[in-house]
Amino acid sequence: QVHLVESGGGLVQVGGSLRLSCAASGILVSANAMAWYRQAPRKERELVATISSTGDRNYEDPVKGRFTISRDGARNTVYLQMNSLKPEDTAVYYCYTHLYDLSGKNDYWGQGTQVTVSS
Fold first, then answer.
1. What pLDDT digit, counting tens, does each position of 57-105 carry?
2. Measured between alpha carbons, how far is 28 from 46 in angstroms, rounded to an integer?
């Protein structure tokens, strides 16, 4: 059973930084593609950053140059370092991964962690 547990959210001022953590169980973060998504009020959930099983990283345009996704295999945890935060970064941030089995693709989400950037 795969479980993803996010932490590290909170209230921060514009220009500040936060580091989100996603502790995984039932899956190895170093062997699977992992991602961070976010959902702002009254908006659809959107992709923020991904890290592949080989370590390739990709970022969506709104966060390029400010956010960094990384992973720690020993702790089986994925991180999202967020710098130069803006009010538009305010959202619930979710950790995501997926696995394939005989029934097809299975999506796994964490419970989310709230990030609020105040101006």
1. 999 999 999 999 999 999 999 999 999 999 999 999 999 999 998 999 9
2. 24
